[in-house]
Amino acid sequence: MEHTETLTRYVANFVDELHKSGLRDVVISPGSRSTPLAMTFAEHESITHWVNMDERSAAFFALGMAKQTNNPVALVCTSGTAAANYYPAVIEAYYSRIPLLILTADRPHELRDVGAPQAIEQIQMYGDYVKWFHEMALPENTEAIINYARGKASRAINTARQSNAGPIHLNFPFREPLVPDFTISKLWGKEGDDAYHHNFEGKMALAEEQVDVLVSKLMQFEKGLIVCGPQEDEHLCKEIISLAETWNIPILADPLSQLRTGNHSKNNVIESYDAILKSKKVRDCINPDFIIRFGAMPVSKPYLLLLKEKQNITHFVVEANEGHREPTGESVHFIYADPSQLCRQLNKSDIPKFDSRWLEKWISMNGIAKNILMLDNNPKEDEITEGHIVKHLAEIIPDYSTIFVGNSMPIRDMDTFFMSNHKHIKVLANRGANGIDGITSSALGAASKGNNVTLLIGDVSFFHDFNGLQMAKQYNINLTVVLINNNGGGIFSFLPQSNEAPDHFEVLFGTPLHIDFKHAITMYNGYYYKPSSWDDYRQALVTSYTNNGLSVIEMITNRNENVVWHKDKWASIEYEIMIAMTKE
């Protein structure tokens, strides 16, 4: 009984301190060695526990929830390979700066490296992909150790969310028996709402003399660009818009920048820059003097090509705390300061005299591109085209919604075909490591907080995370899935492999699945739709937003026709822009 009371008080104080420090959700995967953590989290009435039996899915579910809420989410698993299944999501969380608390149970020290079952080396198993690792002490029922448990819990939460947010890992060695006793007095220990550690964290800012130096450098130029890559700070959007309109320069806005939607002004937003820059001829005619980038590197490959081709551009990258997100290898000025505050400081300074014709040129090119991209010019009027799946989704999706976008072709079609609008639509994706792992689970995690979420995903990515659908069934989570099924890896059809390796292309890159997805959807109690026309698709979307639980709308497309259709659009944009330039 003494062991059980010691174990219970130790874990209960740890869990209670997580709550006092701000934790509200934990995702638990069943196991024996993790019993003390799992049962204590379930007993704490102020922490919501979610049970996901597949650890890989569980970790991505937690990641999606943390993305949606901007709050740390905890993960609990047993010892052995269970923790290894977290690894892909840990990597994604690290690179996309998402706060996760990974709490792994472990064998006690005497059962390690002796051939005990379900035991692997868990010390620092995630390497450099966590901000902090700590091997927790064995439980003791002493004031010093109870305070230690609370201190580590508070530090874990604060470390996960401070500076650049990210994952942390605590490893818990537990001896048997493992079942806690919740009848003991003063179970949760410390009374009151105060956290064990109180952190006061300020925001980095440039000194006024540094702002003056930056502005004086910008005064030398006439043609500038503000670029906003993936970021989720809605307040930053208005500051960037205000600065761009004061300076009279364009903003190249990534689909994950949160700049394309909302009630802020869109006058300077160039959402079709990826389609514009697809053309080498057009890129040759575009010569910015400087670029200021906020957020991560944009999705757009043509933008990256522009940077590599124009090595004389003076390039500034703004980071709120730290980091080196610049893959071009070119000389860059890094500005480490709170982005919103930096925008306000620059907005109050002397206004550089930039060339107004530069903004007009971008607005004209954007208008040309948008008209061509939105035009229904299919020979077959009702033929489903992947880009316009995004177009119709943007028109039908309810206000105050979230779109979670899969990688490969879906995120690129979002970049090209998701135009500015006044709806309040948050756009999220797993763009830290850009993998196809766990995307459905991440979308379900985002949807679990009661938000209206639509997942736009390809068939290979959807197949890759079938297990994640169990959470939709188990918790009746509302999620609309727009499943683009081109029977394989559609993005590879745009790459040289499709022409240069025809004998091996389908087996190694095309990877057709030949799956009837309807059976999997009904297995998880989902609603299934297979539209054959745009009217059917729009109606399916409308209906899905009134359903409870999972709704999957499968859109059948053709990979080869999709490539031709996209390239025709890009060729038309190049042609019309070059004609417009000759008239200037």
From TrEMBL:
It catalyses: isochorismate + 2-oxoglutarate + H(+) = 5-enolpyruvoyl-6-hydroxy-2-succinyl-cyclohex-3-ene-1-carboxylate + CO2. GO terms for molecular function: 2-succinyl-5-enolpyruvyl-6-hydroxy-3-cyclohexene-1-carboxylic-acid synthase activity. SUPFAM superfamilies: DHS-like NAD/FAD-binding domain, Thiamin diphosphate-binding fold (THDP-binding). Residues 220-405 form the Menaquinone biosynthesis protein MenD middle domain. The keyword Transferase applies. Its EC number is 2.2.1.9. The keyword Transmembrane does not apply. Residues 441-554 form the Thiamine pyrophosphate enzyme TPP-binding domain. Homodimer. This is 2-succinyl-5-enolpyruvyl-6-hydroxy-3-cyclohexene-1-carboxylate synthase.
